[in-house]
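chain below, 225 aa
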Amino acid sequence: MRSVQRGPAPNTYTNYQSARNDLTERLGWFCSYCEMPVKNMIEVEHIQPVANGGNELDWDNFLLACRYCNGVKSNSNADRAGYFWPDVDNTPLAFLYSELNIIEPAINLQKHETIFANATIMLTGLNRSPHTGNEPTDADSRWINRLIALGLINDSYNDWLTIENEAFARQIARTATGHGFYSFWLMKFAGIPLVIDAINAAFSGTYITQYNTLGVKTIRPTGIF
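prediction:
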């Protein structure tokens, strides 16, 4: 799950749906949860559901979601407690992405972090795929789009092995933004800074994980769970 920085509110809203274009300008046309590209019908999602006391018009309560993540999440979470969120947490440290189309808690997490990571995955059904016991609905195309992206990621990686230069790194980054699933790209190109930096630069609003005051990267910079 890509960490994002939406920045300060650019407008005051009387209808939360009118924040869509401001959000996509800051964060790109990607679901903030599954990372799938959504070129139309992207939805403004309330992190704390309005039905559970969330502020309907608060910029800081908005993320972008595909219809599947938004529909599965619905009003399931009472508030932010018990989950990781891409706008306040270093979420890339919380999750492990694999070429088997699997999303799971990262290894070496503390017990409470693993609980939070699993809860976040379940909240929006991030790991739903056929024949896993966690089946998607017939309409849920997230797993199919991940498989398509994984094919492109592997092709891009194999091409990179023969064309390792800055221009091709930027081309890979453009391909990544066209097909989404940011975290799977970072998984494949881990240890190749030229490509990683190009991908991070290409995805609007990406927040690069920072070190805390002790010089350690932590999932939750505030340390408050």
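The longest helix spans residues 142-160. The mean pLDDT is 94.
thats it, cya
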